[in-house]
TrEMBL record, chains A, B:
GO terms for molecular function: DNA binding; DNA-binding transcription factor activity. The keyword Transcription applies. It comes from Paenibacillus selenitireducens. Pfam families: MarR. This is MarR family transcriptional regulator.
Length: 144, 144
DNA sequence: CCATTTGGTTATCAAATGATAAGTAATGGG
DNA sequence: CCCATTACTTATCATTTGATAACCAAATGG
């Protein structure tokens, strides 16, 4: 298989993962937050504490819009801002207790669906999967 | 590694792929179509000919909204509708010549970036990657 | 200590997207 | 032949998202 064919396979793969992700995460997001807000919360949950600039950079949302959405999230008591002693311009963002609980429940449910999906795979296959994830992570994703 | 830990790894993996995809596809979409329209064109390009219902189902866009966006795309001469002889309610959608050219160029550029990204991997590693994609495709994605 | 950069906010606007109701026309099953 | 269903359309509305300008305050670097 040449590299062009591998690209084709990669495209198919990406599409399939996208679909699986959609299956795993559908109906997870609470109704009272928007999709963008939910994805910001996901990012905070995984990377907290984070600054506004980090959110803006990583999620490709402009600073003004990040600021706006974050303000809404704090108003909903889902996350909190803390001042940074060393640099008083910066603010660190963390999930509030309610936000943490919400995201814990969400991840719990997604994880459950994932386990359900792989419940039939054997222990050896499980290792194959783990190796596969590592291979792609190291050889394709962290290119340079 | 237990299954819960594998889930963690899967989440990390998904995030990384998302970021890579963003890198590969940024600034590819022409300015005169919206993100949703572009993703519809991607889907048509890969699956043509398709019906409106298929687009609606696969992309998780309601029929009215699919109809609206497709109307805009045909008005921009990027795709065409054909009547189906057997069932006159249905319509098959294909890219127009201009649409095909546009998507060919887009895929060409994305493919180029992908090749650039894997240009340093050896022939053996290439096979590792291919095997990894197959493993995930069969053992995780097509779960039932 | 002044100019520039960084980190963030507020306000405002336009565009994109999502949701719903209501309708047409064709099909298909009793 | 009629009723329910399928496939799609049109219209309309609310919400979300993206983009821009203008601003403040703290830091940083000559």
């Amino acid at each position: 298989m040449d590299r062009a064919a591998l690209f084709q396979k990669f495209v198919t793969f990406t599409t399939a993962l996208h679909e699986v992700t959609h299956e795993l995460t559908k109906d997870i997001k609470p109704d009272d937050i928007t999709p963008v807000q939910y994805s910001i919360l996901e990012y905070i949950a995984v990377s907290q504490p984070v600054t506004l600039s980090q959110i803006s950079d990583c999620m490709h949302i402009s600073m003004p819009n990040t600021s706006r959405e974050l303000k809404k999230l704090t108003e909903k008591n889902l996350c909190e801002k803390f001042d940074v002693a060393e640099d008083r311009r910066k603010q660190l963002i963390r999930l509030s207790e309610a936000g943490q609980t919400m995201m814990d429940v969400a991840f719990q449910r997604i994880g459950g669906r994932f386990l359900e999906r792989i419940k039939h795979v054997s222990a050896e296959e499980l290792e194959d999967i783990e190796r596969a994830l590592d291979v792609l992570q190291t050889k394709v994703f962290q290119g340079e």
